[in-house]
Specification:
single chain, 300 residues, alpha+beta, Uridine Diphospho-n-acetylenolpyruvylglucosamine Reductase, domain 3, Vanillyl-alcohol Oxidase, Chain A, domain 3, 3 domains, five-stranded antiparallel sheet, four-stranded antiparallel sheet, 10 helices, 11 strands, globular, binds flavin-adenine dinucleotide, Oxid_FAD_bind_N, FAD, signal, glycoprotein, alkaloid metabolism
Length: 300
């Protein structure tokens, strides 16, 4: 898809057509070159491709306020298994639903997405504050679990937990460090009272914070990207963090619904059944298939 990477922005309608071979970095750069107050809510890493990322979800640092990439897709152009080029009207709402979260991979080749751009302040604030066990990390993480989804929606408090060499130990002992990598859609003077009221345990001070533009913040966060998290009991997964250990299709030939639903329900829960119905309708011969593509019922 690398030759299909054109990004056309309509600043009057606050929309953009984005071809799927573009990277997130190209999307963010093109938007920022057009306007300081427009943005798009998607992932933190600039090298990620639009095709897989948008069709599988796409969350990032402004997603608490503005949703994820699929929430902001309003049209698409797709090539189906018969080679037809369809837009939202001609593909119908079922297929349009499926490629906004179900992944493009099972249903066709998405050539471009039309998206709504969102409005953000010219200045945002970032901080990356770390606390070890010796610095009260256990209590801070405990509190974070209760406030991170309720605090002001302009603030996303992202948490990474890693093992580090203890700063207090001379003998090489290790400790656990919690890092709060965060973005506030606004200025530091507005952020500090929120933190003081809702999350004083972190002890955030002005010196921890840096004001910058949104495009600068995308670079700040891509440097600090570290890892994903795996859920347990039951083990589930986010479709864009593909996990082949939760089950896969046959290497050759078709795969039965029952076998595919082992991994399918872990990504999509009950929506897996609707994705199977869409697949059966738009690609009954299972032309678009891979180790975790949605199977059509006709292949059973
Ligand atoms: C470094 C890194 C950072 C990441 N950060 C985030 C993050 O912050 N937030 C987040 O939500 N996710 C994140 N991800 C996960 C990312 O969203 C997924 O890896 C996503 O699938 C990448 O899409 P791609 O097009 O680059 O990859 P690809 O491997 O090219 O594609 C992934 C899947 O989508 C299909 N696909 C790709 N393009 C199309 C198309 N045009 N039409 C139909 N199907 C297509 C492919 O067949 C494949 O099955 C990150 C991944 C990496 C590697």
């Amino acid at each position: 898809m690398r030759n299909l990477r054109t990004i056309s922005i309509d600043t009057r309608g606050n929309t953009a057509w984005i071809q799927t071979g573009a990277t997130l970095g190209e999307v963010y750069y093109t938007i920022a070159a057009t306007s300081r107050t427009l943005a798009f809510p998607a992932g933190v890493c600039p090298t990620v491709g639009v095709g897989g990322h948008f069709s599988g979800g796409g969350y990032g640092m402004i997603s608490r306020k503005h949703g994820i990439a699929v929430d902001n897709i309003i049209d698409a152009v797709i090539i189906n298994a018969d080679g037809e080029i369809l837009n939202r009207d001609s593909m119908g709402e079922d297929l349009f639903w499926a490629i906004r979260g179900g992944g493009g991979t099972s249903f066709g080749i998405v050539v471009a997405f039309k998206v709504n751009l969102v409005t953000i302040p010219e200045t945002v604030t970032v901080f990356n504050v770390s606390r070890t066990l010796e610095q009260n990390a256990t209590q801070i993480v405990h509190k974070w679990q209760y406030i991170s989804d309720k605090i002001d929606e302009n603030l996303l408090l992202r948490l990474f937990i890693i093992s580090v060499r203890s700063p207090a130990a001379s003998n090489g002992n290790r400790t656990i460090q919690a890092s709060f990598t965060s973005l506030y859609l606004g200025r530091v003077e507005d952020l500090l009272p929120i933190m003081e009221q809702k999350f004083p345990e972190l002890g955030l001070v002005e010196q921890d914070c840096i004001e910058m533009s949104w495009i600068e913040s995308t670079l700040f966060f891509s440097y600090s990207y570290t890892a994903t998290f795996v859920s347990k009991s039951p083990r589930a997964a986010y479709f864009n963090y593909r996990d082949l250990d939760i089950g896969r299709n046959n290497i050759e030939g078709n795969t039965k619904y029952r076998q595919a639903s082992v991994w399918g329900f872990k990504y999509f829960e009950i929506n897996f059944n609707r994705l199977v119905r869409v697949k059966t309708k738009v690609d009954p011969s299972n032309f678009f298939r891979n180790e975790q593509s949605v199977p059509p019922l006709s292949s059973n």
